[in-house]
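Researcher: Last one for today. Full complex below.
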Amino acid sequence: MDEILRLSQISKTFPGVRALEDISFDLRRGEVHCLCGENGAGKSTLIKILSGAYQPDEGGRIFFNGAEVSLTPRTALEMGIHTIYQEHIVFDALDITENIFVGAEIARWGIPQRKEMREQTERVLHYLKSDLSPDMRMSDLTSGQQKIVEIAKALVFRSNVIILDEPTASFSSQEIETVLDIVKTLKEDGIGIIYISHHLDEVFEVGDRATVIRDGRKVSTYPIAGLTKSTLIKDMVGRDPSTFYKRERTPRGEVALEVRNVTGNGVRDISFKLHRGEVLGIAGMVGSGRSELMELLFGAAPLVYGDILIDGQPVRHKSPKDAIRNKMCFITEDRQNTGLFLTKTIAENVAVANMVNTREFVVRPADEFAVGEKYRQLLAIKAPDARTRAVNLSGGNQQKVVLGKWFNTGGEIFIFDEPSHGVDVGSKQEIYKVMVDLLKEDKAILMVSSDMPEVISMSDRVLVFRRGEVAGELIGEKITEENILTLSIGGTIE
Amino acid sequence: MNTHDTSNSTEPRKESLFKRYENLTVLSIFVSFVVIVVALQLITTGGSRFPTFISPVNIFNILQQVAVPGIIAVSMTMVMISGGIDLSVGMLASLVSIVVALGISEWGLGVGPAILVGVVSAIILETMMGFIISRTRIEPFIITLGGMISFQGIALLLCNSREVVMKGELSFLTANLIGGAKDPVTGLDLRMPPYVLLFFAIALIGGLTLKFTKFGRRIYAVGTNQRAAFLSGIDVKNMRLAVYVIQGLLVGIGATLLLARINTGIITLGQNLEIDTIAMVVIGGTALSGGRGNIVGTLIGVLFLGSIANAMNMLRLPSEVQFLAKGLVVVIAVSAGDISSRISEFRALKRDQADAQAAAAERMKGGSAQGGAQSDMQKSSA
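Model: Here's the assembly. Have a good evening.
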């Protein structure tokens, strides 16, 4: 038992949210310890504590090689704790050597020693059995190769612990193999590895132990040997469904949207029917192609193959303009960057999407203000009047402004991508109520969500996505956390 | 578990007066500038003479000087609100003036057709740049820089690097509309040529377009957030193209007016015009990043920059100082807006800190008493 890192009773509170509660965790030399949990279980927060980016709440203790330490980004690196995040942090215009040594150049008399840095880089790349050359430019590499460079960077500077956050997300299967081989090599050299992945296959292939986190709490720690996937999944799920939002059921009407063999933008061969008066939930892991499909349907990405029918009529959406004219609405996930005009007023935001439906060239600010006021009151947006700028509103109220923008177009088919992302609990309930009101008006809702309780409580049916395809459809009683998770990580249900 | 919403409360944040009324900052600087110049004039003359800076004849003078850059500043405002920029306007104006002058004095086109050829070529050239800008990801800065250099080349080729002198064929554009009118203060003749009125008309149309048409609103939307604009059904590409087409029209008109004033088509005619117009627009509060600005602000910027050179002359400062003064004004006017918003942010932070401290003190009190947490909960539910 050669313990290198131990966390004891770590909690982390953000204003209004308890992200982690009383987590204890340990890592041994030459071990791959996997962290498992759903989206939002608290894995990322834990990593940020280990990399020193966040400080734990009082009472939490961290031991490194048996001695108590406090971690800052600097001390973490000094101890050889390297975190490789899901998103690449690379300098595209620089080559591999420069990327590895950026900010820590080997220099004599202030002159960078390129040759020496290059040699070290080459040695590490060779050790990783990679055929990359130190002189290759970062922008010419695939994301799999960039990941290898990041691992190489951790190795050039003495490493004791390497944290890999979703290292294989959106990789080809060959790249996944390469990364897993590297993990095995590192492990044999006595480096402790914390491995986070949504893909349980990978967990079972490289892991020695697995710790499951749910809602910020540790559920269990198991040795991988003798462990089954279903045990792990049962631990990852297991919320009490009776605490979920109780949605009012609405009668199902005609088919509003039909999708046949839609392919493109990273998704393949998707077919389904969406009825009026129903919520079709789209579940799956982040990166499984859910939002990409929505972009296709909305005309924001080119359709390669397949048909889209609205109310039985085939349509072609060359741009979102066509989709809006065909009564579609798209409440995007990232409302600040793709939904709102932050520096503009509520009234201006509400008016913008409906412009494709009006013929008048002239806009009357008084009319615009009146419409803005109507939706401000209808949706109970907390602002003195519709002249308030969107940037000054809270997340939940911003989301309501986006809803107002779409209601104003008179749309009938609503795409909600993560409807309650970054929204406080009160606003969440209000948004759900608004969604049910839409159903009562015989509208149809396609809802992408990573929030399990949301998917389960709001959906009439659920399509589970995995790697750009539909892994299965769940109806009624079958819509459970366990079934959704099983399908989204490549399992089958009876 | 989302932490990027910095404010925890659902109440909207308050804004300072200066932020709410965007043009207030620059207007107040401009007014203080006028007050300073007038005060200096009064001091130097011991208060014995009317300050000539604000005499009608001088104000009419300033208007004649700023009319052409002002016209171009209107379309530059639109370009910049959409998130673009145009460095080529100066050289394009020179090119157009040479084309029109050649058309009249050498090609024998007649005045009307010559002007038409000049304006249409400006529109075509700007449209070409706008097409590249809206269809690729290349920075407008680079494309219009390339445009600026190549327009200079075309202009020099056309005129064989010589000036094209006319015989006053365009003098109808500079005629005095109020001939015989005298300044009641100085007794000098007042001049009001038609192009000054044209400037006001264009500014009015530009301002109304931006504020009261779907087209104008969409320019703001594209400049604020291109992706959101696209997903809201706006044809982002054609909007970005359209502002350059308008720019071409107004540069064509502006160049013709410049030519009418100077009576000679020459490569230096549009020199520094891009710098002056961009400075005017920026002083007027239009953001280089797009989405923000308006014509009223630009008008203030136009008058402000125009009066600086004039005031320097009045105060008998050497003309070299003008460049320095112009530069300083751009920096001061633009940073003033930023400074005022920083001050209000700082105040908001102090207020939040005080609130947080009060809340913490409250919690400490509650925690020491039995059942403090419970009474807190009751309080919040009440």
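DSSP finds 14 helices and two strands in chain B. The domain at 59-174+196-340 of chain B is CATH 1.10.3470.10 (ABC transporter involved in vitamin B12 uptake, BtuC).
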